[in-house]
Amino acid sequence: MKKLFIRTYGCQMNVYDSTRIADVLAPLGYRPTDDAGDADMILLNTCHIREKAAEKLFSDLGRLRSLKAAREGMILAVAGCVAQAEGAEILRRAPYVDLVVGPQTYHRLPEMVAKLARGAGSLIDTEFPVEPKFDFLPDSATRSGVSAFLSVQEGCDKFCTFCVVPYTRGAEFSRPRDAILAEARRLIENGARELTLLGQNVNAYHGAPGGLGRLMRDLAALPGLLRLRYTTSHPLDMDDDLIAAHGDVPALMPFLHLPVQSGSDRVLDAMNRRHGVDDYRRIVDKLRDARPDIALSSDFIVGFPGESDADFAATLDLVREIGFAQAYSFKYSPRPGTPASSLNDQVPDDVKSERLQILQALIEDGHRAFNRDCLGRVMPVLFERSGRYPGQLVGRSPYLQGVHASAPARAIGTIMPVRITRIDTNSMAGEIETAEVTA
Ligand code: 5AD
Ligand code: SF4
Description:
CATH architecture of the largest domain: 3-Layer(aba) Sandwich
Bound molecules: 5'-deoxyadenosine, iron/sulfur cluster
Distance between the termini: 48 Å
C-alpha cells in the first residue's frame, strides 16, 4: 500500500476534485494519509483566483523539496488552477516537481504515474481534452460524510472581466442527468444525507431539459436524501423554475450563495456582469416570495478598477438593504490575462484595504445579527459527527451554522429539532426538542 497526501486550496470544487483524485489513484494502491512526512505521493491541489497563489505554491514547494529528497521515490504533484495557468513555469522554477496536471485532466494521473515509473522525467498535462474526465473517473468506494459535494457543472462562459475561471477551468460543461443521479445514489449508499451540487456557474446547468430546477426535483425524490444545496450561482441564471423550486422542494435548504460583487451599476457594467443592481433586487424579492425564510450570502470585490467612493458607498447601501446572513469580500486582485488587469484606473492598495475593512465590518454586523435572531428558535439540525465532548454531536442548521447538542451517536445522519440556547463566535449550542420544528 502506498500513501497519498493531498493538500487542497481554494473553493469547494477543488475539495470535490481532491476526493476524485484520491478515487482515481486508489486502484494504483494509494490510500489517503494526513501525514505529509509519511507520503509516497504529495499532491497540491491549487487555486488561482486571487493574488499570491503562485508565490504561495512556490514557497510550499520549496519546503516539500527536502521531504522529497529524504524519501526515495516520492512523487510530488501539482494539480488545480495554478497548474493550469502556470504549468510550464512550475517545472521551470521547481524542476523537482514530477507531475503537473490541470483540473480537466486529472483522470489521466494513473497513466502519468505509470510513465514516471518507467523512468520518464517530469510530466505536464494541462490540455482541455474533448473527453469529459467524469467518464473516466472510477466510482467512489469510500464512505462518504453525512454532507457530500457533487460536481454537476464546470467551467464558465461568462467572462467577468476580473476572473480567471474561464481560462483555468475552461468552457461551461454540464454533466448528464443520469450520471449525476447515479453518483448521488452512490453517495447516499455510502452515507451521504445532504448533497451540495457544485459548479463554477452551477445554475447555468443545462445537462438535462429543465435545467437545475428540474435536476433538484429529481434529486429530492431519491430515497435517503434529506437536504440539497447548490453553489455557486450567477444572478443571470436564476430562472423562474429554479426560484419556484425553492418554494416547493422541501429538501432544498433556504440558504443561497448568490454573488453580486458590487452595488454599483457602473462597476457591474465594467465587470461585465451583465445585470444591474435592480435585477439583483428583483431576484431576491422573487426568492423571498417563494421561500420567505430564505437567507442570502454573497461575494463582493472592492477596489475594482475605476471604483469611486460613490460606487463603494452604493455597495454598502446594498449590503444594508438586502441584509445578507453572511458574505465574503475581497480586494480586487489583477489576474494575468484578464481584461480588467490592463485597465488604467487601478485603485491604490491602501484605498482597497480601507474599503475592505469597512465592508467587512458591515458584513460582520449583519452576520452577528442573523445569528442572534436564531437564539431561542427551534431549528432542524442535520447531525454530522461526534463533538469534542462525550455525548455531544455536531450538526448544521439549514443556514449552515454549526450546532452542538447532546444527542445519541445514532442521531448522526438524521435531522432533529434543536432549540438554540447559546451563540458563540463560530458555532451555536442547543438542546434537542421534542416539540415541532419551527424553522
Ligand atoms: N480579485 C478579487 N476577487 C476575485 N474573485 C474572483 N476573481 C477575483 C479577483 N480577480 C472573487 C469573486 C468571486 C469569488 C469566488 O472570488 O468575488 O465571486
Ligand atoms: Fe468568474 Fe463567476 Fe464571472 Fe464565471 S461568472 S467569470 S466564474 S466570477
